[in-house]
Specification:
mainly alpha, two-stranded antiparallel sheet, 3 helices, 9% strand
């Protein structure tokens, strides 16, 4: 029954996305993907969250890119 409750936009199995992942998803260059990751991680840092350089939370990425 819990499976029925899953959101239509379920998040991927992986918790973090790399610049290569972001570049492929958004169809941008890797340097642009790194810039996007840096921006999202800066927002998370300001909110008091711990981040990993060069990677972004998949959940946060999808919530903030409206995909």
């Amino acid at each position: 029954m819990a499976d029925c409750m899953k959101s239509v936009h379920s998040y991927p199995e992986r918790k973090f996305l790399t610049a290569t992942d972001v570049a492929e998803i958004l169809n941008v260059s890797r340097s642009t993907a790194y810039r996007i990751i840096r921006k999202l991680n800066d927002e998370l840092n300001k909110a008091g969250k711990i981040t990993v350089a060069g990677k972004v939370s998949a959940k946060y990425f999808y919530e903030n890119t409206y995909l």
